[in-house]
Amino acid sequence: MGHREEQRPRDGVLSCTLDPPGRRAGDVPSVSEGPIACERREERGPFDIIGDVHGCYDELVELLGKLGYRLEQRQGAGPRAYPPPGRKAVFVGDLVDRGPDVAGVLELVMAMVEAGQALAVLGNHDYKLLRALRGRNVKIAHGLQHSLQQLGAQPAGFRAQVADFLAGLPTYYILDEGRLVVAHAGLKEELQGKASARARGFALFGETTGETDAYGLPVRLDWAQHYHGRALVVHGHVAVLEPRWVNNTIDIDTGCVFGGALTALRYPELELFQVPAHRTYYEPIRPLGPPVPMETQAEHA
Predict the structure, then answer these.
(1) Which domain holds residue 71?
(2) Contact criterion met (CB below 8 Å) for 182 and 123
(3) Which of 93, 112, 162, 211 has a CA 20 to 30 Å removed from the CA of 47?
(4) In what order do the strands lie in the sheet with 47-50?
C-alpha cells in the first residue's frame, strides 16, 4: 500500500495520506485542493484522544484501562482493546521510536483501527519510520534506531503490515461536524480542510523558523497563540510538562517516554486522564516546554 494523499478516487474526494500508489513513500506530493477523505465530520464521538505514545506499551494499556477499555490477551494473536459502548480512541501520532515496546504499541493500535475502534493520524516519527521501512535513505536518530531494532526482531510479514498501516494514515482528521481537528503537530484554521503539501507538512511537523536552537533542534513557533478557529485542535508533537490549553487548542503530549505521563482527552467532555511513566526511557535533548512565542518570529527572520 502506498501513500495516497493527492489521489482523486472516482467519487472526486481527495484522500489525506501522503503519496499515491506508484510514488515512492516520502516523495513530495503535488498540491491540490478539494474535499478530503480525512473529513469525517459525521463521526461525532464521543472520543478518547491519546497523546504521543512513543512505544510506551505498558502505560498505554494502563491508560486504556483507566478510560474503561477492556483489554484482552489473545492466544497466538496480538492484544485487543474493547472500548466502552459508543466510544472510540483517536491517536495523535508518534506511536513509535524511543520507547521499550514499539512493536506491542503498533500491534495493539493496528488491531483497534482495523476493528473500527480507533482512528490514528500520522506523526513525524511514524513518517520517518515508514520511509526507513520502505528503503529510503533516512538519518537514524532521535530514537528511530529503537524502532528499527525492535521491528527487526519481528517477522518480515509484520514489518510489511506496519509499513502498509503507516502509509494509510491521514495527516489529520476533521471530526464532529467540523468542531474537532486532530493533527499530530496541530493545524492552523486556514489549513483545515486543505489537501495541500503545506497543510500536510504543518500537521506533521508544525511551524518552525528554519533555524536550530542551542540543542541543535528546530526552533518551533507557537502558532496556537494566534489561533482563533471554531474547531478545537487537539495535538501533540511538542512535549510539555502538563496538558497545555492555548485558545481553542490543547497539546496532550506530556512526554511519557521522557519520564512524564501519557495523557488522554475525553471529547466532548474535555476531561483529562493521565498515567505516569513507569520510568524515563529516553532522556530529552532539551527541557520539556512550549514552543517559541510567535512574537519572536521577527527576531528569526
Answers:
(1) 39-300
(2) no
(3) 162
(4) 118-120, 88-91, 47-50, 261-267, 271-276
